[in-house]
Protein: N-acetylmuramoyl-L-alanine amidase
Amino acid sequence: MPEKNVADEDVKAAIERTDTGDGPGTHNLDDLPESDFAGSAEDDAAGPQATATIPYDRPVEDFIDELSATGHVTHTSYMKTSVTLHHNAGRLSHQGVLDVWTVRPASAHFDVDAAGDVAQYVKVHEYAWAVGNTVGNQSSISIEMANATLAPHWTVAESTWKNAARLAGWLFAEVIGERPSRSNLFYHHKWSATLCAGPYMDRIYDEVLAAAQVAYDYFKDTHPTFRPDAEPVPNERRR
Structure:
């Protein structure tokens, strides 16, 4: 069966899932606490940096404007203290993920596909509709991962989870400012009643954490080159 058809079928199945535990985490977004920053993301929504991806050392495909057009994101910035990993509940491409979120009121900051490539949908400090929990959406950066197989095992390819762990290590080094540990690297089910990121990822959590720690140590000791078109990283995080 052509890969495109598989992806299309998985998009349809993912849209129809009702047990994802994602979403904004509150029925009234106006009740969210004020931003941790002096100005919210709405204040700097204009200008060339509004849609810029992070200054990662590998390519990051930019879906920020397209996700924002769905309305399924809250453009208010919060200080992030953790990273949360998810699975797609499907063998989705980056575009397939956007197709799901266009219909379902959900979003996340990043996706890592089957090849290990990264896409960004929400600016790192903003409130993605990701974990179905207000505090979790405020404090955590969410990374989605494509599945290699579907239910019941929901496996994730090594190329996918290792690159998600590497991205998490970068985020801990350059955005959060703490080493990844069991107290700040989570799966989605930490925040709400869902099986995400799936039984396979539960079994290999120690490997994922170790890979994120290796990446953190590398990035912590590497002086990054910040692209002028990249999403700004708070000055207090820069070394």
Q: What stands out?
A: Residues 3-26+62-230 form a domain with the Lysozyme-like fold (CATH 3.40.80.10). Helices lie at 3-16, 64-68, 94-103, 134-139, 158-176, 199-203, 205-220. The CA atoms of residues 52 and 229 lie 6 Å apart. The longest helix spans residues 158-176.
